[in-house]
Amino acid sequence: MERKLMSLKEAVEKFVSDGDKIAIGGIGRNRCPMELVREIIRQGKKNLHLIGREKGMDFDMLIGAGCANKVSFALVSLEEFGLAPNFRRAAQEGTIEIDEHACGTIINSIRASALGIPCIPVKGLIGSDVLRYSKTIKEFICPFTEEKMVLVKALNPDVAIIHAHKADEYGNVQILGSPWEDIFMAKAAKKVIVSVEEIIPHEEIKKNPLLTSIPYFYVSAVVHIPKGAYPTSCDGYYESDDQHVKEYANLARTPEGFEEYLKKHVL
Fold first, then answer.
1. pLDDT given for residue 4 in this prediction
2. Does the keyword Zinc-finger feature in the UniProt annotation (predicted)?
3. Of 66, 68, 88, whose CA–CA distance to 78 is shortest?
4. pTM of the predicted model, to two decimals?
5. Phi-psi region of 147 (alpha: psi -120 to 50; beta: other; left: phi over 0)
6. Which residues of the chain carry a pLDDT beneath 70?
7. Residue 139 has what pLDDT?
8. Is the omega angle on the peptide bond into residue 231 within 30 degrees of 0, that is, cis?
9. How many angstroms separate the CA atoms of 21 and 45, rounded?
10. Domain-located, residue 140
C-alpha cells in the first residue's frame, strides 16, 4: 500500500483543480471538511461545481470567495441562523448556476456516480416545480409498471473532500457515527481527500476491519487536521460552535462583512 499522508497545502494543490466538480462531505453543521474548504479559498481555486445535499457554511464560503460557479444541492442554509447569505446573493443576482434537487435526487445522483451508471430512477418530484427548471432530472414512464417517475443524472464528481475521525497513513478511513453520503462520494469521485482528527497505526485498522468506512484504494490523500471540521461538529470529538456560526451569519450579510470574516478566520 502507498503512503498517502500529506500536508493540507500539498493535498489541495495536487488534487483540486480549477473547474472541478467537487463533492463536499458532511451535512449542515455536522462533520463538514471546513479546513479543506478554507485551504481551497486560500489557494484561490476557481469555477468549481459544488455538490452536496444539505450544506451550509462550506458552500456559502466558497461561493462568497469566488471559488464556485455552479451548485448542485437540496438545501444551502445556516439553519437557525438564517439563509446562507452569499449563496442567496449569488442566486438572486444570477452569478452562479443553480442545479436544485430534493434530498432523494441529490443523494441518488451521487449514488449513480458511485455505481458507474449514467442515471438512476427515483420515485418522487412528480408535480414539483423543480422539474420545470432542472437539466439533470427528467420524467419518464417505467417500462415495467407504466408509472410516471424521474431519472436523475449521475453528477460524476472529479474530487470529494471529506472530514472523518480516524485513518491510517495509507488511507483506510474510519467514520464514527452517520456517514451521510460520504461513502458514496468517495466511491463516486476520481480523487478523494480526507482530513482526519487522528492518524492511527495500521495495526489498529487490521484489529477492527469493520470500522473501516472508506478503504485505502478510494483515497488519494490523508491530511491530519485536528478540529478540521470546526466550526461544524465532529461526532464524539466536539460540538458545533454556534457563536462562531452566528458571527459568520451576521458578517456575511454584506460582501464587506464577508471579507472581514475571511481576513479574520481564513486568510
1. 98
2. no
3. 88
4. 0.97
5. beta
6. none
7. 96
8. yes
9. 12
10. no
